[in-house]
Amino acid sequence: MPKPRRRTPDPRNPRFIPGIYDYCDRWCERCEFSHRCAQFAMRSHDRPDDPRTRDIENRKFWETLGSSSLVAKPARKPKPGTAKKNAAGTPTIEAAAAHEKRLDRRARTLGQRETNAALTYSHMVDEWFNNELRLPLQHVRNLERRVEKGLTSVASAKGELVRLNDCVEVIRWYQAFIYVKLCRAFMSFVEEEEERTLAAPRDSSGSAKVALIAIERSLAAWVAMREMFPEETDSMIEILLHLDRLRRSVKRKFPRAKSFKRPGFDDKA
Ligand code: SF4
Question: Of ligand 1's atoms, which has the minimum distance to the CA of residue 33?
């Protein structure tokens, strides 16, 4: 008997929190709000495993993308008077592109210090895992030995392994994410300056808040790793100091980030 077709989720359903996916960390597997997220519902709806149906699904994806405002951040209009207009009075493509380029340059200049630091952090993580991989491996072997000798219970060894795995996952997930979010925060900042939207809730603050959360969670994961490998802490201290400096710098540049309310996540009682 053919399986009954599941209904496509309706993004207007009140169970979904509008805009929750704008300020999340995209870690759906770990998200506590996936059941209230329209983007997650759309993505996981009827996901086919059969490659024959994949093309159809891909087409649907592009059609949905073309007609939906769910994914993309709307393009901002150039500030009045800053872009050349054509005969119909609308800005030309060249003028809009030049405007975008100018904003991009300004965003890069403003955020140079923080985005460079975020990029450096990402490289530091790769380097650490390349050079120090023996540490987690050794840790796992030691745990096995301790279980064999009866010095540690299986349950406690499993707990240790889960803790180690969680730390590595957190570090790896946010490794490049911090850089991406900071780029968006600075870009939004210059766009908002152009539009003079200083009083409204600002995308720059929201994006900076998400970057700060990612930095803080990464810091917590590195601290936990340091506790697991107390004999090898030098390389981790360097990373911790670097991340902490980045955190302080981002906080200074985006003083409103802390009070920004992310839909759903910051509405919790
Ligand atoms: S809000 Fe949660 S479920 Fe939705 S996209 Fe973000 S992480 Fe994924």
Answer: 2
